[in-house]
Recover the amino acids of this structure.
């Protein structure tokens, strides 16, 4: 067994409810910490006695602890979401490819997140906002089902203050909502996109990523200027078991962040 | 028509690809307007006899639902066309519209534009294509929202 296959013990140090089913956990190492992650990478989180699942890092790069934003959808994610401060969690990683947001230095960085898909993008946004002067513009477009299901909502104003344009839209508004009501792709047109000088990072449900990428292509961007984060079931995390195979890609190793150039032909194949 | 109206129309996404002559003809029926935030532009059930090209700001399309209050169905912004019901069989607004942020727009009387299209069929064809594209993209957006993409997927019982 290699080191990356042995979970390291961490403890929940903080817990923040994001929405009715989504929680952000901060984890501190019980002993020696794991190597720090790059934006877009993920960890395998082990809820003792229940199971292990891949979860992206959602905290700032280089932070001492680990931050993960988890939506309760099944047994393991539910167990992680209900972890209380002090509770132990096993962690392996970091795994996978990163956003490489710095490739957009001197250009526009366009970040588009749908639902919980904003979680893997948050480290890239925070990294870019540490040095906003190195980008022409930083734009973050956020889509969610409803205002109550927006993650990191308390931070958008801070991102704006740090130099980003942040636009938020929901599929269904409630009476108190005064923002956009539309599909997230409808925010692209008014965003002032310069298709020749933009790097786009997209994460969300697969259909949302495909439609968003198509909107960007129609606006004149090329597939190699667009990066998406893909998810498949994972087990080993190190390219050995084949669980995360997606066409020719092993997503734990060749992903989760891949160029749309590589992803587009695979996303159009049913049941891959 | 003022020159600034024609220039505003020429700079609007809706007019992309129209000839100078067509822009001038259409601009002759346009009025540049400003709508303060909070002002209702039209109400559900009223006669639908105008449409707008939004230049800046944001408009909320809404519907009053008994027991649930006023719900926003969709928002429109810069580059969007506002008002499609004048094209329908019943020329009544199906939804209301209110300026959510201060709006600048070009306003058109639909009867005048229809008369212009009857006179200049080529312009009529081009406008019809643009209005159809608007309707198609609104329909697709509505369908995507019906899909409820952000909901937790339910694992299917089996089979593709
Ligand atoms: C690289 C990577 C990064 C991820 N990052 C995050 C993250 O930051 N936050 C987070 O909450 N989740 C993330 N996920 C998804 C997470 O791993 C799954 O939600 C988890 O594996 C579900 O396990 P479970 O035992 O709780 O539920 P299961 O019993 O395995 O599944 C319960 C239900 O959830 C659905 N489901 C399972 N996996 C997913 C998925 N990936 N997306 C949508 N629905 C799914 C299933 O279809 C089923 O209906 C990531 C996945 C990958 C591959
Ligand atoms: S998870 Fe085992 S090969 Fe990717």
């Amino acid at each position: 067994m290699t080191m990356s296959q042995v979970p390291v013990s961490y403890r929940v140090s903080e817990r923040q409810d994001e929405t009715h089913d989504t929680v952000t956990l901060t984890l501190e190492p019980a002993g020696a910490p794991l190597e720090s992650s790059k934006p877009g990478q993920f960890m395998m989180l082990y809820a003792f006695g229940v199971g292990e699942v891949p979860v992206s890092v959602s905290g700032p790069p280089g932070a001492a602890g680990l931050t993960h934003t988890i939506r309760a959808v099944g047994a393991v994610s539910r167990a992680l979401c209900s972890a209380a401060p002090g509770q132990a969690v096993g962690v392996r990683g970091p795994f996978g490819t990163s956003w490489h947001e710095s490739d957009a230095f001197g250009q526009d960085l366009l970040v588009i997140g749908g639902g919980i898909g904003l979680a893997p993008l948050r480290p890239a946004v925070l990294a870019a906002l540490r040095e906003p002067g190195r980008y022409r513009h930083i734009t973050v477009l956020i889509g969610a089902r409803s205002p109550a299901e927006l993650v990191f909502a308390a931070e958008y104003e801070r991102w704006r203050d740090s130099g980003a344009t942040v636009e938020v839209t929901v599929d269904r508004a409630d009476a108190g909502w005064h923002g956009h009501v539309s599909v997230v792709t409808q925010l692209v047109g008014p965003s002032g996109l310069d298709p020749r000088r933009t790097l786009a990072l997209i994460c969300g449900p697969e259909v949302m990523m495909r439609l968003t990428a198509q909107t960007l292509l129609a606006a004149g961007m090329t597939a190699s200027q667009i990066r998406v984060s893909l998810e498949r079931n994972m087990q080993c995390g190190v390219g050995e078991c084949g669980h995360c195979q997606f066409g020719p890609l092993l997503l734990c190793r060749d992903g989760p962040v891949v160029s749309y150039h590589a992803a587009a032909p695979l996303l159009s194949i049913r049941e891959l | 028509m003022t020159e600034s109206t024609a220039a505003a129309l020429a700079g609007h996404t809706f007019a992309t690809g129209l000839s100078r002559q067509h822009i001038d003809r259409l601009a002759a029926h346009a009025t540049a307007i400003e709508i303060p935030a909070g002002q209702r532009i039209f109400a559900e059930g009223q006669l639908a006899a105008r449409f707008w090209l939004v230049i800046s700001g944001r408009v909320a399309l809404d519907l009053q639902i008994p027991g649930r209050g006023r719900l926003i169905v969709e928002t429109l912004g810069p580059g969007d066309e506002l008002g499609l019901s004048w094209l329908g069989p019943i020329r009544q607004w199906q939804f209301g519209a209110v300026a959510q942020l201060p709006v600048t727009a070009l306003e058109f009387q639909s009867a005048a534009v229809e008369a212009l299209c009857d006179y200049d069929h080529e312009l009529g064809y081009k406008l019809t294509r643009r209005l159809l594209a608007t309707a198609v993209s609104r329909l697709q957006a509505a369908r995507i929202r019906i899909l409820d993409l952000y909901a937790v997927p339910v694992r299917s019982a089996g089979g593709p």
Summary: Helices of chain A lie at 75-81, 118-130, 156-161, 206-218, 260-267. Residues A 234-237, 239-244, 250, 252 surround FE2/S2 (inorganic) cluster (ligand 2) (CB under 6 Å). Chain A touches chain B through 33 residues (CB under 8 Å). Chain A has two domains: 8-95, 101-229.
